[in-house]
Amino acid sequence: MKKTLIPLLFAFFCNIAIYGQTIDDYCNEWEEALLENINNADQLKVCWKFIKHAKPPCKIDIYIELGIVHYYEQQIDSSFFYFDKAIALGKKINEEELLSSAYSNKAYFLIEEDEDDKAKPFLKKARNLLKRYPTSPKWRDYLEARENIAIKALDYDAGMSYQDSILKIIKANNLNNDLPQYYHQIGYYQIKTSDYKSAIINFLQAIELKKKYNVLDDVSSSNFLLANCYSRLSQNETACIYYKEAIQNAKDEGNDFNVMLSYLRLGKSQRLLKQYKEASKAIEAASNIAKALNTTSQYAESLIEKGLLSYVYFKDNTKAEAHFKEAINTAKDALTLFYANQSLITLYFNTNSYSKAKPYLLNLKTLNKAVKTDYHTMSFHRDYATYLENTGQNEAAILNLKKYYKLKDSISSIDLKKEVADLEKKYDTKNKELEIANLNQEKNVQEKQIQEANFKRNLYLFSALLLAFLLLLGLWIYSKLRKQKKALAESNIKLAETNAIKNRLFSIISHDLRGMLIPFQRTGRIIKHHIDKNNTERAVEIATELDKNSQSLSSMLDNLLNWSLNQMNGYAPNPTQISINTELKNIIEGYKQQAIYKNTTINILTKEDITTYIDEGAFHVIFRNLIGNALKFTDNGTIRIDFKNQHNRLYFSVADTGVGMNETQVEKLFSLDDKKSTVGTQGEKGIGLGLNLVYRFVEMNKGTISVSSKERLGTKFEITFPILEALQDSNSKSLSA
Predict the structure, then answer these.
(1) β-pairing verdict for 714-722 and 704-710
(2) Is 646 exposed, middle or buried (0-12, 13-18, 19+ CB in 10 A)?
(3) How far apart are CA 213 and CA 180, in angstroms?
(4) 240-249 contacts, C-beta under 8 A, 24 or more apart
(5) Looking at the whole model, is its pTM more than 0.70?
(6) Model confidence at 504, in pLDDT bands (50, 70, 90)?
């Protein structure tokens, strides 16, 4: 009997161990899948995929997550249905910590629904269970629910106190991924108490930690609130940068609500910077999203901004007044009503309609008590002082004006703005250091993978040859820089300045060359993956594509080098006598093979030659880019180059029969803002520097450039230069062609 019992007991305990490990592994896999799918719809799919085979403890966590996601999808009944399923299962298997989490989460969302009385019994049950587990991570769910009650009561000091308790739980359980949310929440409370300096510190810390720990599911909120801080400090240019970051983050997250909020605030900052057209586009985008989401408060905010634009930009007071009144009738929350009333009051002040402003000032006074922030109290006293002064109540006006300046001095000062600017600079440096550390870490991983490779050495040799090509390319750049150094050394004037320029240039090129190497290194890792899977055909395909892409690298580096020189004030025109016909033929010769490949002819229409004075290097940069760009977008066609001397100016044109452009593309052609590379007819790629470089060199040589284009008909560039009669100062710097 004993001999039979011992093996059975051994098997029983082994099964228990395997069962526990399975639960942990399965739940970890589920949590990782959640992190990879950050929008609500995808998270629901992940939960339903894993719940089918989940063991009871893991299933409780999944039920809780289903409740949370359904709530954010505004499916309230479904949300509480899953919280109740989690509670029932927790009771059944007597999992006290998980049960406490189910209680706390249900309480949290009951509070969100203004059901505080229903929430309190669940909080009490959660606390009684957690008393047995003083360092349990589930305390966080309980504390967040209590914090939610404090927030709704506008008790921000209590909210920060709960966050400090949450921080202790995070540290006790090494939950580093939760640190960013702590700093984010503290920053939120500091905004509410008008401590913008401290708020900026915490939001920058939150963003930095989210990048460090790859917690990218809600970066948009941190960037949005950080932008709000700069906006409150009247640093609207910086605010716009972070609002645009928040918009892109929110789009990546699939968070339409945050996209809408960020567009609203971006439009406001752009309006204050007098960028009225951009502001109008941003507000219209926010208004459309608000209608789609049926969010009355944000729609009311868009009406306020439309009213301000109508007044400031379109000079239409009647339309502005109508927008403000519609916003007052639409808004539901105190904060939006405050801004709507304040905007209408400002309009009446500016039109000397003080009697019309009075009832809205009374509304503002009541709303200020509901909002309860120093910033809004300050703006109320400013408006009230203006009204009293213009209605003959001078003593009362002075009293309110004193209150306004007292609050203003406590919120914003010159020293504070300087500290904030220094802080942002420090953050940018840290961020770059973090990126370098990540690159080095990637490099180490790649080197380890190469060392472990033990077969298909012919393909690895191909990868090594590609890397050797890049190394030779780097040596070529270094050689070119040495030649420039030698040329600069021949000039005895300002030797120290030219050395400084060379050092900065080499630093930029070295940095960007590293950035160019990264795609090739990562492609090597992909090649290894397919080799490991014995997928030789796919590996060869990728290697062939890698070889094709590398051929555009040389041209891109040339543009980057010249552009870097221009950015560092390392260029000044040095006209020399050249033959236009000869130089154009030399340039065209470099594109001969590519033209044959694309079955396109390049013709110089002018038969006679013209000799003139112009910077030869700039001339080559301009026409290399124009001809190369025309060839990029032309198949089976013609490129025509013409030039003439007319009215003491040189006229050039480069016309192609390629794919052409629409009006929007033409308008943004020479700009680097939001620039995206356009793929050529044969898949050619670039980085968007070429035409901007052309524009800069034409301008620096006192020329003009224009472009006309129609889709499917082709594009024509027209350039003019003044005719120079003599060489300029021989000491001027010259760009090597």
Answers:
(1) antiparallel
(2) exposed
(3) 9
(4) 240/266, 240/269, 240/270, 240/273, 243/269, 246/220, 246/221, 247/220, 249/216, 249/219, 249/220, 249/223
(5) no
(6) very low
* Closest C-alpha to 656, from 716, 589, 710, 600: 716
Pairing of strands 649-656, 638-646: antiparallel
Residue 280 has pLDDT above 90, yes or no: yes
Spatial contact of 397 and 388, defined as CB atoms under 8 Å apart: yes
Confidence (pLDDT) at 346 = 92
Residues 6+ apart with CB under 8 A from 630: 639, 654, 655, 656, 658, 715
pLDDT, tens digit (0-9, with 9 covering 90-100), for 669-701: 877 555 555 667 766 655 456 788 788 889 988
State the DSSP code for 636.
Answer: S
Q: Strand pairing of 576-579 and 611-614? A: antiparallel
Whole-angstrom distance, CA of residue 545 vs CA of residue 523: 10
Report the alpha-carbon distance of residue 51 to residue 70 in Å, rounded: 16
* pLDDT confidence bin for 447, thresholds 50/70/90: low
732, 574 in Cβ contact below 8 A? yes
Q: For residue 486, give the amino acid letter.
A: K
Which amino acid, one-letter code, is at 329? N
The pairing of strands 638-646 and 601-604 is parallel
Question: pLDDT at position 1, please?
Answer: 42
**CA triple 184-185-190, angle to 5 deg:** 100
Separation of first and last alpha carbons in the chain: 95
**Rg of the chain over all Cα atoms, to the nearest angstrom:** 33
One DSSP character per residue, 588-621 reads HHTTHHHHHHTT-EEEE---S--EEEE-HHHHHH
Average of per-residue pLDDT across 526-532 = 72
- How large a percentage of the chain has pLDDT more than 70? 75
Task: Provide the total of helices (H) and of strands (E) in the chain, helices listed first.
Answer: 30, 7
Does residue 355 come out as left (phi exceeding 0), alpha (psi in the -120 to 50 range) or beta? Answer: alpha
- Candidates 170, 85, 164, 88; CA nearest to 135 is 170
If 0-12 CB within 10 Å is exposed, 13-18 middle and 19+ buried, where does residue 587 land?
Answer: buried
Read off the pLDDT of residues 138-184 as tens digits, 9 standing for 90 and up.
Answer: 998 999 899 889 888 888 889 889 989 988 888 888 888 888 888 99
Residue 666 in this model has a pLDDT that exceeds 60: yes
d(CA 77, CA 80): 6
- In degrees rounded to 5, what are phi and psi of residue 171? -70, -40
Give the tokens for residue 48.
């339903």
User: What's residue 244's pLDDT?
Assistant: 95
